[in-house]
Write a structure and sequence with these properties.
Largest sheet: none
Number of helices: 10
Order of helices and strands: HHHHHHHHHH
Structural class: mainly alpha
Radius of gyration: 55 Å
Distance between the termini: 136 Å
């Protein structure tokens, strides 16, 4: 019994080993077949990729040649066809032209066109045989809407303030010549005052009052301007007399002119009015200085 059991175990072990060996062989066969199939698929993919690349290259070449031939006329293309001995395949339906042949023909045509020199027109070529003939104009330029048939000389406008033909401005002569305008302004101011007294509408009265104030302020400005002009004119006369005596001419600065103007103004105002103005100026300056002080020191003062 023991011997049979051992034999049975040995036989079962050998069967298992054989089965394992067979399974390994089958797996190896399957692996090899899978590898062969994957290699074939890769080769097919590579072939398809190469074919697609070749088609793309051909399409790009065709597009480039078409761009080169875009500016060529049909007559030139017909001449190139005749020179190259190309057959007209439009009527022959059975014959088929390959893409390679088309590419070769187009390349040859493009190279021939590039080699041919462009004709440059000279001035003599552009001249008209008769002056009454119309001129040749490029069609690429836009035509103007308004055409100048008869040339008209443009009017030259001039400003008398900056033109030498008008001469130099003489302020004294101008004021004497147009002095009557001041009389008109005074009469208008008197009329406005009378209308303002009689006016009952408050809105209209407010308008008249504003207009009157504007005219009064303009008159004051004119008087102030005349005062300054008279002052500086007198100063120039004094300086001219000193120059005649042998002194070197001296021209006042802006700051000196301002001081001279203030001195003249205060002299004409009088002592009381000057004191009043100085007091106002002093208060104004102190108010400005107090703004820069802290609150505690302001209350202490």
């Amino acid at each position: 019994m023991v011997i049979r059991k051992k034999q049975f175990e040995e036989h079962s072990d050998s069967d298992q080993d054989g089965y394992a060996y067979d399974s390994q062989e089958e797996e190896e066969v399957h692996d090899e077949s899978d590898l062969d199939e994957s290699d074939e698929e890769n080769e097919e993919d590579e072939d398809e990729y190469e074919e697609e690349n070749e088609e793309d290259d051909k399409a790009a070449q065709l597009a480039k040649i078409k761009r080169d031939l875009a500016h060529v006329s049909f007559e030139q293309l017909a001449e190139i066809k005749g020179k190259m001995g190309m057959k007209d395949h439009s009527h022959d339906k059975k014959s088929k032209i390959s893409k390679e042949q088309i590419l070769k023909d187009l390349k040859g045509a493009a190279t021939k066109i590039k080699k041919t020199n462009k004709v440059k027109l000279t001035k003599d070529d552009m001249k008209r045989e008769n002056k009454h003939r119309p001129m040749e104009v490029s069609s690429k330029r836009a035509v103007g809407r308004f055409k100048e048939v008869v040339p008209v000389q443009a009017e030259k406008r001039r400003d008398p303030r900056f033109d030498k033909l008008s001469g130099q401005l003489n302020q004294d002569l101008f004021e004497k010549s147009y002095g009557f305008l001041n009389d008109y302004k005074k009469s208008e101011m008197d009329m406005l005052r009378q209308r303002l007294k009689k006016e009952k509408d408050p809105e209209e009265a407010e308008k008249l009052k504003g207009l009157l104030v504007k005219m009064v302020s303009a008159e004051k400005q004119d008087q102030e301007k005349k005062r300054k002009q008279a002052l500086f004119r007198e100063r120039k006369k004094q300086e001219a007399e000193l120059v005649k005596q042998g002194k070197t001419p001296y021209f006042l600065k802006r700051s000196e002119k301002r001081k001279l103007d203030l001195m003249d103004r205060y002299e004409k105002l009088g002592a009381k009015s000057v004191d009043r103005i100085l007091e106002k100026r002093r208060k104004k300056n102190t108010a400005k200085d107090r703004k820069h002080l802290p609150f505690k020191r302001r209350s202490a003062e």
